[in-house]
């Protein structure tokens, strides 16, 4: 895999969209990376109870619920000192799941050949949404194969242009995950503290599978 150097903390808003989320990412990212994990995305959700959602993974994938718990404990200690959130909040640390968001340039290289949906902050030749199979990375451009007038064309989108990107759940993807499950043997879910499955418009966390799982570790409200 090519080396993807982090010249800036975040070149777009794929990891953190709002000012407070970016501030939180600046605090949390060095800690998460020091623990040997990647920060995939961070979100501060309002409502009856504010929730700080942290999505993390191992560099090569395969994060487990115990890893999420360790990240949660470490982040809690740091946030107690930094105190960037004024209101009480619940801290939730989870894995990216199968139809994961793509937030780092290396994600587009790692998932070459998989179907994805990309969205740009500004229209590119009159369109902002692109769907097709990822075709790797060329310097700072994400390559994707899309259908144009009934034919497949490869286009390049600057990584900095992207405002949203995620894998698309497909039959081929599920078959591959199931093949890996059969090869690795299914784990005993009773060995884990909490396995949470959610089906919502914001996050569709499909089956709990051993290789590309969606583990979630949630702490009680703080303050």
How would you describe what is shown here?
This protein has 223 residues and is of the alpha+beta class. Among the domains are: 19-98 and 207-218, GMP Synthetase, Chain A, domain 3; 105-168, Ribosome maturation factor RimP, C-terminal domain (SH3 type barrels, Roll). The protein is built from 4 helices and 9 strands. It has helices at 19-34, 65-82, 105-110, 171-184; strands spanning 38-45, 50-57, 89-94, 115-124, 127-138, 141-148, 151-158, 162-167, 216-218. The protein has a 5-stranded antiparallel beta sheet with strand order 7-6-5-4-8. The chain is globular, with a radius of gyration of 18 Å. Residues 3-9 and 186-213 have low confidence and may be disordered.
In short:
With 223 residues, the protein is α+β, with helices and mostly antiparallel strands. 24% of the residues lie in helices and 31% in strands.
As a whole number of angstroms, the C-alpha radius of gyration is 18 Å
- Count of DSSP strands: 9
pLDDT < 50 runs, ≥5 residues = 3-9, 186-213
CATH architecture of the domain at 19-98 and 207-218: 2-Layer Sandwich
Spatially, the strands of the biggest sheet line up as 7-6-5-4-8
CATH topology label of the domain at 19-98 and 207-218? GMP Synthetase, Chain A, domain 3
Largest sheet: 5 strands, antiparallel
Structural class: alpha+beta
């Amino acid at each position: 895999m090519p080396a993807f150097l982090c010249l800036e903390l975040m070149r777009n808003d794929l990891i953190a969209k709002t000012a407070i989320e970016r501030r939180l990412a600046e605090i949390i990212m060095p800690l998460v990376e020091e623990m040997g994990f990647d920060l995939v995305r961070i979100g501060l959700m309002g409502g009856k109870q504010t929730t700080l959602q942290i999505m993390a993974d191992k560099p090569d994938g395969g994060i487990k619920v115990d890893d999420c718990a360790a990240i949660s404990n470490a982040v809690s200690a740091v946030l107690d000192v930094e105190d960037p959130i004024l209101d009480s909040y619940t801290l939730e640390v989870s894995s990216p799941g199968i139809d994961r968001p793509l937030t780092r340039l290396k994600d587009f290289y790692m998932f070459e050949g998989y179907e994805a949906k990309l969205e740009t902050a500004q229209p590119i030749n009159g369109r902002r949404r692109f769907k097709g199979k990822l075709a790797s990375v060329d310097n700072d451009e994400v390559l994707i194969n899309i259908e144009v007038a009934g034919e497949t064309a490869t286009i390049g989108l600057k990584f900095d242009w992207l405002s949203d990107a995620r894998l698309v759940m497909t039959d081929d993807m599920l078959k591959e995950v199931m093949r890996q499950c059969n090869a690795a043997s299914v784990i005993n879910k009773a060995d884990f503290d909490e396995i949470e499955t959610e089906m919502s418009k914001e996050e569709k966390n499909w089956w709990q599978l051993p290789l590309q799982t969606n583990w979630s570790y949630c702490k009680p409200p703080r303050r």
